[in-house]
Amino acid sequence: MIALALLLALACAIFYWILFVRVSNAGLAFENDLIIPPEMEFTVGPDGEKRFTLYVQEGEREFYPGLGAPTMGVNGNYLGPTIRAKRGERVVLNVHNYLNEDTTMHWHGMHVPAEMDGTPHQKITPGGDWTADYTITQEAGTMWYHPHTHGGTATQVHQGLAGLFYIDDANSERLELPNEYGVDDIPLVVQDRLFNTDGTFNYQIRTGAHYGDTILVNGTVAPRLAVESRKIRFRILNGSNARIYWLGFEDGRTFQQIATDGGFLDSPVDTKRVRLAPGERAELIVDFADGEAVKLKSFPEAGLLETTAAWFGQTTNGHFDVMEIRPQPATRVSHEIPDTLNRIQRLDRDRANVTRNMFLGGMVINGRSMSMMRIDERIRLGDTEIWRIRNNTGRTHPFHVHLVQFLILDRDGRPPSAQEAGWKDTVHVAAGETVNIIMQFTQYANRHVPYMYHCHILEHEDNGMMGQFVVVDDSK
Ligand code: C2O
Ligand code: CU
Ligand code: CU
Description:
Helix content: under 10%
Number of helices: 5
Strand content: 35-45%
Structural class: mainly beta
Mean pLDDT: 95
Number of strands: 31
CATH topology of the largest domain: Immunoglobulin-like
Low-confidence stretches: none
Shape: globular
Number of domains: 3
CATH superfamily of the largest domain: Cupredoxins -  blue copper proteins
Bound molecules: CU-O-CU linkage, copper (II) ion
CATH class of the largest domain: Mainly Beta
CATH architecture of the largest domain: Sandwich
């Protein structure tokens, strides 16, 4: 009996060490300069609209020197440039498909008409092109773009099709925040990849989702970044197919979170960790005044259910060194981060016209697998809705809704943390958890062209964990 108990304790200790202590990529030398995606060039059209051209193409990238890997990129060989526009501006985005397969281009987090959303319904065939044309009506924030190809999103994003889309507005321009692109306002697209020994991607779906053991930031393996020793802003996108990150610094320093997916928080939130599931974004302010080099890490912190699942072979998260930041002498003084960043108009629970249930099952939502031919939900224009998202599975699903930014009302009845009390378009729904979100459908009725809602683990999405909704104007 005692021997058995000891053996069990030993086994537990080993599992604990493997899951929570061991750094999966320990000992990495961070010797590659972080690639900063360029800002996308544009021309100004006759009506003042900003015109962007996106060439979706195949390419080759040496993630490891001398070892080329076939990839895909937008206007380049891996990932794409950062699109930037201001609230009130009209953008015209002309997307050319130079791939040998169908693709689409979706503007994740963006409030746009359904026919401009770049879902599977706006397919671009090989050699073809498609134009999205819309006016930016939402507040400043960090959005992104990626294909939404029917059944093919996971592979295309994995190959490199993704980029950032920054929205500026009067508030973001007025706020005294670091905003010099690539200097003190740094984009970080975090992705995990698995490599073959010849330097090519090894894309395998084992547990219904793909996990890699190598972390890329903006497509850079083992990146280092020189910054001035002052406050630096990071805009982080979890652009991974499936992996969740709990980001923080190796020295346990406190930093400030200033924005969620869809805009600024009301006030900066002091924290040591930020959790990002696939599709989620956060903006952080980190002070490097001490001049010490420090590693950005992803820590293993999972709930009990997920930890148990991990024991049975399901990968959940991991313990990684992500990048090294090396402060250099500063040429200007640090920004005083304002206490008030935003004034979020909270949506009152009592004002909701409709409550919908979203039961997350194994690759299904409400028991149904995605069909392009079926409209799952009809929403009345102008309505405020509460969606009750219940995760009946043994693992996290990040739930994403197109068209809107929503607010989290509660997680299992508890109000969201200050870090999540801002506009969101993707929400981490843990195993066994119920999350209530609230949103308003103010614009863009179209009874024929649907928007999507889905799990943002891309392999789950491709395998049917997605549904379609239309917004209808009853007065017409
Ligand atoms: Cu980021 Cu429907 O997707
Ligand atoms: Cu989206
Ligand atoms: Cu999922």
